Structure formats: C-alpha cells, structure tokens
Amino acid sequence: MRHRNTAFICFALIIISAILFSGHVLAQSGECGIERGVIAKPLDEPTWKKLNDAYEDAGNELYDVAYSKFVIINNRARSKYLKAVVAQALAQVEWARSNYDSALTYFEQAVEINSLPDQTHFSLMYQIAQLYYMKERYDDALDKLALWMCKVPPEKVTASSWVLKSSIHAQKKDWRNVIPSIETAISLAAEPKEAWYQLKLASHFELEQFPTAAETLQVMIQSWPDKKDYWTQLSQIHYKLKQDDEALSVIVLAYRRDMLDKQTDIMYLSNMYSNREVPIKAAGVLQKGIEDGIVEASEKHWTMTADAWYAAEEMEKALLAYEQAGKAAEEGEIDLRRAYILVDMERWSDATLALSAALDKGGFNDRKTGEAYVLQGMSEFYMENFDKASTAWGRATKYPQSKKSAQQWMMHMQEERRRKS
After folding, report:
1. pLDDT digits 0-9 by tens, 408-419
2. Domain total in the chain
3. Is 94 helix (H, G, I), strand (E, B) or coil?
4. Of 114, 112, 115, 108, whose CA–CA distance to 90 is shortest?
5. Strands (E), 143-223
C-alpha cells in the first residue's frame, strides 16, 4: 500500500500548490489551437483546514474516512474551483481503493468543471487517458490522449506518453500506428527501455517487415548482447530473407558466446552448417551438443551426427557415432550401415560384429537381409573362417536378390581352397 500513500501525497501537493496560487494561469496553445485561461483563487482558511485534514487521512490510508470528508466539503462547496479540487481528490481516493470506474467519473468531473490551473488540469486529462486504457476502452483512451497532446506544450509530451499511445494501438492490433509512436518514444529517451524495442520489433513482425525487424534486432543486440533470443531471431530473419551467410554468421557468434543452451538452437546451427555444405562443423556442433547433454542422445541425433561425419569423410568419427546410434536403435539398419563402412575399410573382424548385431535386430527388408549375409560371409572368408563363411552364404541364397552373389562367392572360396591345398 505504500505506493498508493506516496502517490496520494504527491498529488495532494499538486492540489495544495494550485490552491495557494492566485492570479491568471498562463494559457497554453497546442496543435489544435485551443487556448485556456484560468483564474485560480485562494481558499479561505476553514476550507483549507478541512481539505488538509482529509488529505492527511488519505495519506494515512484511511480512505473511507477521507472519502466521507471530501464528500461533505463537496456538498457545501459554492465555487467551481473548489468543486474541481474536491472532485480530483475524490478521484485519487477511489483510485487508491481500486474503484477505477468511480475514479474515472470524478476525474472527468474535475476536467469538465475547467477551473483548475493548467498543470493540474492537463495532468488529470492524462490520467483519464490512462484509466480508459486500464478499462480497455482503447478508442476513448486514444481520444483523451490526443486531446491532452494537443493542449500541452510540446516539451510536456514525454517518451512515456508516446509509449502509452503505442501501447493503446498495440491493444487495438493497429501495428502500423504502433511503430511511429514507439519510435518517437525511443528518440526522446536518453536510455530507451528494452520493452519499447520489443514492442517495436513485435510490430515489424506482425507487419512482416523483416528487413526493418533485422535492423531493430541489431540495435537490440548492441544494447542487450546477453539476450540469446535476439541473436536467434536475427539469424532466423536472415535465413527467411535467404541471406544464408548472414544467418550463419549471427548464430555462430551466439554459439561462440555459449548462448545456445537448447536442443533447437544446436539443431538449427548444425542444420545451417549442413545447408552451407560444411559437414565437419555440422557434425562437431551436434556431437558436442549430445555430449554436453543439450541434445538428446537418441538414435536419430546420433545418426545425424554420423551421417555428417561420413559426409566430411571422417570415417573413424562416423563409425563411433553410428555405434552409439546402433546402441539406441531397436532395429538393425544402423548397424548394417556401419558394417558397410567397415567392409569398405577391410576391417573384417569389426564388420562381423556389426553384421551380427544388425542381423540379430533385423527390421530391414529381404534384399538388405540377403546383402548382410553376403557381407558376413565375405568378412569370415577374409579371416579364413571358411566354415562360417559358407554358412553365411548358404543363408544368403535363400533370398532371391542375393542368391547369385552368394553362389559366386562360394565358388570363389572353393577355388581358393583348392589352390591353397
């Protein structure tokens, strides 16, 4: 409740200053050309004491007591000036009690009486606009804010008032009018708030103004370089605009700053490297992500890693990754893929282990099953395990696609054995 207490005391000081002021108040002329001239008259001492007593109750958060006292003063008031002062005080009490509809009514009464000095009068107009905004009466809020902006001197229209205007437009989803208002707020502030740039960025996204959104994000990154989302959003915008080099550069910088801490981030970077045909980096990023626990150590992710190492012709790393993928796989496809590589490398013993794992798990079609038995026979043959080779090829002949190849290998083995005998 302390913030309400402080707010009320500040407002009371404004009113007291107005009460003590006598003579003509300077008229103000805004863009709409409406002039206002007000004569403020000092109040008599008994009235002043009653007002001060009610203000003290409100300052002590005795709002019900203060409200009753202000109502009594209002009922006995004869001058428009005093009625305006009391209406303003009642509005503040109602605001403090969260009775915003009633507060709005009293604020409007104070303005309609048109007897308060300019500074107080215009402050009330601004508060009315804020209340309409709080009540989600956005068109009314815009009208009141426009009137206030029209009447006060230009230097009184601060960054915060332009933020209010842009926020109202945002609630109306009027994104085209959000942008000039929030840009004006940013230009007026020595240190614009991050939320203002976020509103500007959101508006550009809503309007699909992606080049301008990229420019905004560049400014935001300079001011808040530790916010990962700005880096990833900027990279994604460049990618959307088919600026692949820029997209990759931005996300790589974020990676080097250790900002990519989610699986989607690592996958995005790895895919970017793959798209730019840099498989060695695609594999390295993805494998590190798995090892660091950021990326799930699944069959899919280990297979993607292995495929990237294979594309980079890093066979040893590819084999290790395929082995990890095979451990996570329920079917034998990955182990068979590893076996093909081992056969090409003439690593027969490792190949037989991979082929055994693949055949035990199964899950692939007859053609691949036959091929697996043929490869198993080859591996055993080159290790001079002729009986095991013959058994494997015999199994391969049961599959039409591999029968001929298996028979040719068996004939070749017979010739070799005769030659060596």
Report:
1. 999 999 988 888
2. 3
3. helix
4. 108
5. none
Shared domain check, 103 and 2: yes
pTM of the model: 0.78
298's tokens: 């699944």
Q: Which two tokens stand for residue 52?
A: 């001060």
Q: Would 267 be classed as within a structural domain? A: yes
Residue 170 inside a domain? The answer is no
**120 within some domain:** yes
Q: How many residues does the chain have?
A: 421
CA-based end-to-end distance of the chain: 103
- Assign residue 284 the CATH number of its domain: 1.25.40.10
25/149 same-domain check: yes
- Count other C-beta atoms under 10 Å from residue 349's C-beta: 12
Strand pairing report for 23-25 and 38-40: antiparallel
The verdict on 359 and 412 lying in the same domain is yes
Task: Give CA angle at 210 (259, 260), nearest 5°.
Answer: 10
Instruction: Print the domain residue range for 153.
Output: 1-157
> Angle at CA 244, nearest 5°, toward 240 and 246?
100
- Give phi and psi for 259, each to the nearest 5: -100, -15
Tell me the CB-side half-sphere exposure of residue 228, using CA atoms within 13 A: 13
Give yes or no: residues 266 and 129 share one domain: no
DSSP for 22-87? -EEEPP---TT-----EEE-PPPHHHHHHHHHHHHHHHTT-HHHHHHHHHHHHHH--SHHHHHHHH
- CB burial string 68-86: b at 16+ within 10 A, e below: ebbeebbeebeeebbbbbb
How many other C-beta atoms can be found within 10 angstroms of the C-beta atom of residue 345? Answer: 13
323-349 residue pLDDT tens: 999 998 999 999 999 999 999 999 999
